[in-house]
Structures are given as structure tokens and as C-alpha cells.
């Protein structure tokens, strides 16, 4: 097994597992953080410390963070919450079809509930053109949601530039940072971003724990989606899962320390991999090497069917389409939005690299990919 | 247990398709449909298929089914090709229902080849 | 520290922590369960096994269970989801003011959105009278939500009887079983219950993982609250948190084995505690010993102020009100709904016992409680 | 760090309220308000409080404040009681704002006691 699917999920760092175990078993730590007794306060302290660590990673203050069950919930809370909170001012929303389903589906649902959604078309490499974006912003636009790093192509959007356009017009800007949090520098104090979704399991933390950043700025607020005990200033009730949050905090602390080293490692891996396959004819990079996050390389191969390619690549674990819809047989809607033909989109493989990835794994992947593409092309009626 | 989408037999046929390739000769048929491309070629003697080969662009089930069909149909008559039902392959390879259409493309190709052979007679 | 707050949360069994650790670190287990490759399928297998175990605990089939982030989310999904799914048939809903906030708050929110909510008054011990309930059911009633075990008083509702009334009339019945799942026998195959909320952290499992049971019956369905990747038949998207679900499964398996033993243990503890304090004058049991879950004993003491009582009881960790609102200074809304005066409600202490509780702890708690009540009464201007 | 709601001083005063009780004599005042009940009694000589005691039903801050007030006011004159401000106690005991009303009940009781003493003169 060679795992090159780190954009889908990651192994949890042993230090993080230890911290989580202690948060579940050590006397006091397991108490309900809503309780007033000393044991409950001990749990709150663990949670506060985790908030400090995540806040430090993205340079904001801990009280700006709401804990959620993952980026899917953060995206939903941000989008539904901001849209309904501001619906009296206007009902126009802006996003892109290349966003994750956890963003496009809430917008599609809002469109059925009387909101108007404008989908901005991406440039061929997947980035948004700021001029095009500017041209669709209106007086009644309330929310723009455009992600940081795309989960399929790795393309990096200019969130500073997008945010500036929004802030000038009093429009809220939400960023799905599920794929960038802990991997690229993020300075929320400096960025014109109002809402940001994060999740731990994409950077060596536990699955099922996310956060939503809500800027401390007039007009920035979300209506809650869940109602219950008054936890988290009523924005997101439910017993706080101490061990999950402790794990997220530890994840953030490790990421803050390792970010530069991680990035250099990923860049070296990605370049080694690309150097190993680039001379194959008929390859198309989905996204761009220049503007892409180096942890992801998405490549289509002309004349090769995707599902067969995936099987021929075994024991390589990689993805076609994004993890969340890799079960469906349909070509990725993201790649189609980039203008790929069905056939080319079908042949796309997302290679994603991680901390544990080695040069030897890259070399083995190169060999497997070259072999599989060559063999399947020989097998196909119309050779490339 | 969540099942492996590919049976051992599909994996085996996909990994070692002994009938992959092109047989020189004038008996050949090609079909493109449902995102699947199949080309079949055959050596025919006395109205019987002596040897058969395939080229295919498609999912693993399509490739495995093409390989299995070639192996199965060697020695058969044109009439048998004309009446070739893909149902047996769908069962023996546990092809998921949503892929039925693709296997019918293979059936089409086999029947076309049968017609080509018949017309040549 | 003597922890008698097991109704708020519980320590996680070491076997469960081990299973969760393995689900985070062992090769393959950490893969995204949405991925098609062998590693992803390994994660799905872990999740399926957990579903089997939880399903076995409550005697249903695993495909009837939706994973959530806890009972708060399950309650919200059940109530909002069923109310909106069936709103074209009618907009009348029924519940009780003694429910957890995760039930009363969604209903209060629905009341603001054009639904009509009838709150049935409890009998003095907290149970619902079936005749009274029947009398409020109408042709346009769509949903009844009445919990199994009350989190403050421990009172057990007759969910079979309530469900039968609902089923006769084609009304959906939702049960918040956060406090009973894994502690009392539940047979969903036999019970006329349509929706049931469960959570792991109340019976020695991890915090932040819950489930919603949805009966396989015509007309029983919920509209989703979150939108995104198509996980869980679109009812609740988001990357499934393998380690949390594995932990929940292990929790269920242990509970199934230990239930009778646990119940006998709790009954012995509760009886020992009550025998130790019952001769104090002016004590009032909130709920009832006869119809209560033995893991919870809620007692008010006339003439004693609750917050001072809590402090005087240190190092005993217990709750006033429910865990979720134990920070608020207001007397419990549940006890007020039972007809307690503010003063009596204020003095209520919820003692809740657990697997690790010992006779020695009970004896120490008896001594602390007797001492504290006596001292505070001596300190008060109007002696009892 | 999430703070302990009670300072060490509050804990100490609550645990060992040396002035709890009733002093026999005719100087006493009682106030019931905001869910708080306070009864103060005093030995008075020459218009000065020689000894003071309290009974209280209320939260730990109320009990601690009553104990602190008794200790502080022994030796004071009726006039000083009449002008007694609770602000000092609120600060020294770090009473949370939402409990201000309860400490004002204590202030009330002290002032009432001051009036009782004055009227007796
Ligand atoms: C860009 C993006 N957004 C959202 C999500 C959803 O995150 P989660 O699995 O934490 O719900 C993912 C990952 O699946 C993602 O890649
Ligand atoms: C009866 C009841 N319902 C719901 C909840 C909420 O559960 P969770 O903490 O899993 O969100 C609790 C516990 O806090 C509870 O006791």
C-alpha cells in the first residue's frame, strides 16, 4: 500500500492520540465542560488551551473560534447562518462551482429558498479573476464564498484580493480553508476575511472536529443552526467534545511548528513526481504547478479510462474526483467546470502527498503510473 | 464487510488479458457507446472463430468482460456470436447493475462481429 | 474528589480509548471512509462493525442509524427534520417543558416559524399522563417528542405507551434517549418509536458522537440540516469520524454486556445513599424512587440555598440543574415545571452514580450532604 | 485558565464564618430580598458596635460578605453603619457583577441595623 491520498484524510500524529487519550481518561478531564465543579473547570481549561493553539496558528483571538464537527458543518453554519442573518439587507450570494459540495450544496439549497446565487466561472487553471468577480458584486450582495486551496486541484485562490473587494463593499467573505489550514500561512488579523472554515483531519488531526472563525466586526454574525444548551454563546450548542478539541489544538501546535518544513518537503515530493511522469504524452495538469498547493497534483491522461487507471495503479491509494464523491461514477464537477471534457475529467487522478511520504514512495508511484497509463493506452482501440 | 467492487476473477482478467490486441485479418467490428470503446478482431475458418482479440477503453468490468468473451467465443460459430447474450458474463463477473449498459456495448460488438463473419461467408 | 456527576458525562472505558487510538493510527484505518481504495474500505468496515454493535444494543438494523455529533444534533435533526418534512400535512407539535434544552429550544424556534407547539404538563413526579397527552393530540399533529429518562430527575417515561398513542394516529414519535441508551433495555424493533436520539458520552463513550434512529416506516423521514458530500444517504454529510464511531460501537458492545450488572449496581448505590440521608427533615425527592432510573437521585432540601450547598459539598462533584445549564444561576426550569417553588428548586442537587462509584464514595457523600445541609440551615435566619 | 468562581478569601470566610449566629440583645435587623435573607444582631455599648453576628440564606458570596462585614464593623459607630457602602466588599471579595444586587441586600441590612441602634439611643 502506498498512500497518496492525504488530501482525503491523514493519519493522526501519535502525540495527538496521546493527548486525546489523556483527555478522555485522566480524572477530571472527562467531566462535562459545562459543569461548574472543579472537574468541569479542568475540562474547560483543556478546551481554552486548545483554542489558544488553534488561534495562534491562524493569528486570531481564541474567542473568535466556534467548535464544530468538521468543515462540512462549519461551511453550512457560515453560509446558512450569514445568509439568513443578513437576509433583510439583501439576498444575493456569490460563489463558484469549483467549491467543495459542503459549500455548493448549501448555496443550491438557499437558491431554492428565495436567495439568488451567482456562480463565477473560474479561469482555466481554476483561479478566480478578480475583475470578473468584481463585476458580479451588487448592492444587495451579502456573502461571497470562495475557498483557499481547492481540494481537487490544489489551486490557491488570492483570498486577500477577494476579501479586499468584499470589504470595500460591506459584503461578508467566507473562506473554506479545509485544505489550507495548518498547511499554508494564514493571518486572520491581517486578512479581510470574515468567516473561515477549518477541519483537523486534513492536517494530521482527528476526524470529526472543525472550527468556524467569525471576525469581530460589525455586521459579521451567523444565525445558529442547532439549538439547545447555551454552549458556545448559543452559536453551536452540545457538550463540547474535550478529546476532539484537545486533539485539534495539538494538531494546530504541531502544524505551526512544522509548516515551513512541511511545505518544503511537499514541494520536493511534488516536483520529483512530476519530473518522473511529465514526459508521458497526453498529460494535462488540472490546476497549475505555479499557483498550486504542492501537496496536491491532479493529472489527466488522454485516452485512459479513470476507473481502470485507478485499479491498474493498485496498491497506490489515490483519488479520482474529491474524496467526498469518489464513489460516484460521474466525472468530477470541478474539472468539468474547468472546461475538461468528460473523458479527460474521467481520467484525472489526484495525487496528494503528506508528511510521511518518502522519495521511495514517489518513485514507486511514478513507475506504477507510467506502467498503468502505457498499458491502458495499448489496450484501448484508439491509441493516443 | 464493504465488498471489494471487483471480484477475484475480474481482477485476474483485468491484470492479465491474454486476448488483448489485434489479429490481422478482415474480420473486425468496433462499437463506441456509453463512453465505452470496443474493437474485436478474429481469425475465422469454416465459419468458426479460431482466435479472437479485443481492444477496449472502459472500466475494469468492461475490460474483464471483453477478455472473458474472447476466451469463451473461440471455437464458436458466427450464429453463436449473433445470439451472444451478455447476461452470463454479467453474472459470472458480478457486474454491478449500473454498468449493465456498458456490458451491452460488448454484446453489441460481439454480434456485429458475428454479422461481419456471416456476411463474409 | 468524589465524582457523582455521571449524568453530565462519564470517563471513557480504557478498552474504548484503545479502539479509538487504533482507528486513528493503524495503517488504513485513518483513510477517508468515502474513498474507494482498499484503505478507505477498511475504514468503512470499521464503521459498519460499529453500526452493528449500536444496532444490536437497541435491537434495530444498522442501516436505520445516522451518525451525528451528539444528542444535541440528533434532537435538532429529528425535530426540525421531521417537522419540515411533514409540514404540508400539518403544523402542530407536542412536547413537554421538562425536556432537555436540545428538545425545547428547537420546538421554541419552530414556534417562531409558524408551527404550533403544545406543551403537556407533567404529573408531580415528572411523568406524563397518557390521558392528558391523548387529549391534546389533533388531526394536524405531526410530531410528539417526549424523552425516555429525564436528565435532571431520572424519571422514566412510558415510551411504549406514548408511542402507541402516536402510532394509532399516524403521528411521529421522537424519543431523546441520551440518558437511557446503554443503561436501560431498549427494543426498537418492538417499540412504537419513530425517531430516537442517542449519545455515547453518557455511558462511558467519547464525547461528540451521537446517533439518530429513523424507523423504516412510511412517512418517517427527516429533511437534512447539513448539505455537502453525499455521506449517510445525504441525511448527514461530512467525513465520518471513524475513531469516534468506533468508540461509540465499543461503548455499545460493553453496555450490552454489562447492562443488568450496571443496573443492579446503580440501584444498590442509590438505595444506600437515600437510606443515609432520608431521615434529614425537609428533603423532597424530585422525580420518584419508584419510577426513576436508579443512576440519578435529585433531592431538594428546604431552607438551604443551592449554590452554597454545592460549595459546602466540595470535594463532591455533583450538579444543580442539568449539566447543560448548570452555569446559569436560575432555578432549573425542569423542577419549576414540576411545581417546585423557586427556593426549593434552587436547593436541588442531582446526584448521579456510575460504574466506578463505590460504597465508600456513597458513604462519604452521605456524610458531606448531612453536614452541609445541617450547617447551612444553622446559618440561615429561618431555621427549618 | 477558567477561574474558580470563588476567591480564596471567599472560600475561607464561607468555610469558617466566625460571626455566624445570633447575639442576644435588642439590636437586630433583618432583610429579605432578591432571594437572599439576612439577619444581623449586635451588642451595642455607647453607640458603638461591640460585637456583631449574622445569619444568612444566600450564595457563598453573600455568606462571605456577611462574615466580612461583621468582622469589619465591630468597633464602628451607628453612623458608620448608616453610611456603610458594600462596594469595598464587592471588590475585596471579587463579587461577580450579576450578584451585585445580593450584596446590596447586605448593605441594606447593615444600614437597617444602624437605624435600629440610632433609634435606641
Ligand atoms: C475543501 C473542503 N471543504 C470541506 C470539506 C469537508 O470537511 P469535513 O470532512 O471536515 O466535513 C473537505 C473535505 O472533505 C474539503 O476538502
Ligand atoms: C436528555 C439529554 N438530551 C440531550 C443531551 C445533549 O447531548 P450531547 O451532549 O450529546 O449533545 C443531554 C446531555 O447533555 C441530555 O441529558
Account of the 3D structure:
The complex is a heterotetramer, with two copies of chain A (384 residues) and two copies of chain B (121 residues). Chain A is an alpha/beta fold and 384 residues long. Helix content of chain A is 39%, strand content 13%. Chain A has helices at 14-25, 38-57, 71-85, 101-112, 130-136, 159-168, 242-277, 306-312, 333-337, 342-346, 359-379, and strands at residues 2-3, 65-68, 92-96, 116-120, 141-145, 172-176, 195-199, 210-214, 283-285, 296-301, 316-317, 349-352. In chain A, strands 2-8-7-6-5-3-4 form a seven-stranded mixed beta sheet, with helices on both faces. In chain A, helix 6 (159-168) links the parallel strand 5 and strand 6. In chain A, helix 1 (14-25) packs antiparallel against helix 7 and helix 3 runs parallel beside helix 4. Chain B is α+β, with helices and mostly antiparallel strands. Helices cover 45% and strands 22% of the residues of chain B. Chain B has helices spanning 8-15, 60-73, 78-82, 87-92, 100-120, and strands at 27-33, 36-45, 48-57. In chain B, a hairpin with a 2-residue loop joins strand 1 (27-33) and strand 2 (36-45). The mean pLDDT of chain B is 94. The chains are: A alpha/beta (384), B alpha+beta (121). Chains A and C meet through helix 1, helix 2, helix 3, helix 4 and helix 7 of A and helix 1, helix 2, helix 3, helix 4 and helix 7 of C. Bound molecules: pyridoxal-5'-phosphate (2 copies). One pyridoxal-5'-phosphate (PLP) is lined by residues 70-72, 75, 100, 102, 147, 151, 176, 178-179, 199, 210, 323-324 of chain A.
Amino acid at each position: 500500500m502506498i498512500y497518496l491520498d492525504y488530501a482525503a484524510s491523514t493519519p493522526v500524529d501519535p502525540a495527538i492520540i496521546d493527548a486525546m487519550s489523556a483527555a478522555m481518561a485522566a480524572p477530571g478531564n472527562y467531566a462535562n465542560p459545562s459543569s461548574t465543579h472543579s472537574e468541569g473547570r479542568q475540562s474547560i481549561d483543556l478546551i481554552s488551551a486548545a483554542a489558544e493553539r488553534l488561534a495562534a496558528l491562524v493569528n486570531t483571538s481564541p474567542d473568535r473560534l466556534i467548535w464544530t464537527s468538521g468543515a462540512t458543518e462549519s461551511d453550512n453554519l457560515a453560509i446558512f447562518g450569514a445568509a439568513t442573518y443578513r437576509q433583510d439587507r439583501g439576498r444575493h450570494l456569490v460563489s463558484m462551482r469549483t467549491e467543495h459540495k459542503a459549500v455548493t450544496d448549501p448555496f443550491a439549497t438557499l437558491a431554492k429558498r428565495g436567495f439568488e446565487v451567482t456562480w463565477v466561472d473560474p479561469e482555466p487553471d481554476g483561479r478566480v479573476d478578480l475583475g470578473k468577480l468584481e463585476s458580479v458584486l451588487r448592492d444587495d450582495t451579502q456573502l461571497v464564498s470562495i475557498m483557499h486551496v481547492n481540494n481537487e486541484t490544489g489551486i490557491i485562490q488570492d483570498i486577500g484580493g477577494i476579501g479586499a473587494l468584499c470589504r470595500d463593499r460591506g459584503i461578508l467573505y467566507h473562506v473554506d480553508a479545509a485544505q489550507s489550514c495548518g498547511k499554508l500561512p494564514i493571518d486572520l488579523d491581517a486578512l479581510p476575511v470574515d468567516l473561515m472554515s477549518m477541519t483537523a483531519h486534513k492536517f494530521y488531526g482527528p476526524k470529526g472536529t472543525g472550527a468556524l472563525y467569525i471576525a469581530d466586526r460589525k455586521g459579521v454574525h451567523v444565525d445558529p443552526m442547532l439549538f439547545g444548551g447555551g454552549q458556545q454563546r448559543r452559536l453551536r450548542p452540545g457538550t463540547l467534545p474535550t478529546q476532539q478539541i484537545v486533539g485539534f489544538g495539538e494538531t494546530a501546535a504541531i502544524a505551526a511548528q512544522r509548516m515551513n518544513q512541511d511545505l518544503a518537503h511537499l514541494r520536493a515530493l511534488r516536483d520529483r513526481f512530476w519530473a518522473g511522469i511529465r514526459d508521458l504524452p497526453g498529460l494535462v495538469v488540472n490546476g497549475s504547478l505555479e499557483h498550486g498547493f504542492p501537496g496536491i497534483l491532479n493529472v489527466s491522461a488522454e485516452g485512459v479510462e479513470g476507473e481502470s487507471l485507478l485499479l491498474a495503479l493498485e496498491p497506490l491509494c489515490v483519488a479520482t474526483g474529491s474524496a467526498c464523491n469518489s464513489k460516484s461514477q460521474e466525472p468530477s464537477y470541478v474539472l468539468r467546470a474547468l472546461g475538461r471534457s468528460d473523458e479527460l475529467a474521467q481520467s484525472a487522478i489526484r495525487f496528494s502527498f503528506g508528511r510521511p511520504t518518502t522519495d521511495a514512495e514517489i518513485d514507486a508511484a511514478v513507475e506504477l503510473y507510467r506502467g498503468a497509463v502505457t498499458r491502458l493506452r495499448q489496450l484501448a482501440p484508439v491509441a493516443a | 464487510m464493504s465488498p471489494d467492487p471487483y471480484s477475484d476473477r475480474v481482477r485476474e482478467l483485468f491484470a492479465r488479458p491474454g486476448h488483448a490486441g489485434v489479429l490481422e485479418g478482415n474480420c473486425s467490428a468496433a462499437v463506441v457507446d456509453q463512453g465505452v470503446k470496443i474493437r474485436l478482431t478474429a481469425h475465422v475458418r469454416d465459419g468458426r472463430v479460431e482466435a479472437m482479440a479485443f481492444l477496449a477503453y472502459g472500466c475494469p468490468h468492461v475490460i474483464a468482460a471483453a477478455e472473458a468473451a474472447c476466451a469463451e467465443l473461440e471455437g464458436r460459430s458466427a450464429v453463436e456470436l449473433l445470439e451472444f447474450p451478455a447476461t452470463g458474463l454479467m453474472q459470472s463477473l458480478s457486474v454491478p447493475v449500473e454498468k449493465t449498459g456498458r456490458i451491452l456495448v460488448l454484446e453489441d460488438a460481439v454480434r456485429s462481429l458475428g454479422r461481419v463473419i456471416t456476411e463474409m461467408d
